[in-house]
Amino acid sequence: MKSVLSILLIIMPIIATPSFPVNEIQKNEIVEIIDSELPNFSSNNSFWGIFSFSCALLSIGLIPNILAIVPISLLGIISGVIGFNKRRKGLAIAGFILSIIVFIISILLSAFILIGGVGGAFGG
Questions:
Q1: Is residue 66 part of a domain?
Q2: What is the pTM of this model?
Q3: Count of structural domains within the chain
């Protein structure tokens, strides 16, 4: 065991040497980026409309989970209202209307379940 370790200690510096030239002096240059790209939520883009419509579609997909529908549809309603003030507002209007419809459906379903109408409807 000692002989294996001694052989490894002798061979490792030979194996570990680089096969390319290494310069001892290296210069590191720090470059400052002046014009960084930040998200622009100005009136030129339709971010809020796309977000509102996406929230509406996501809340429609989550209809079996009533507790998840409410916050997502509220996000869709709020972002749709923000999107009304932008230049391209078609998706904002569609997302706003779909979010309101899904929000009302989820409130009605949760009230129906809390009252106990589902058990009565199926004979329970």
A1: yes
A2: 0.59
A3: 1
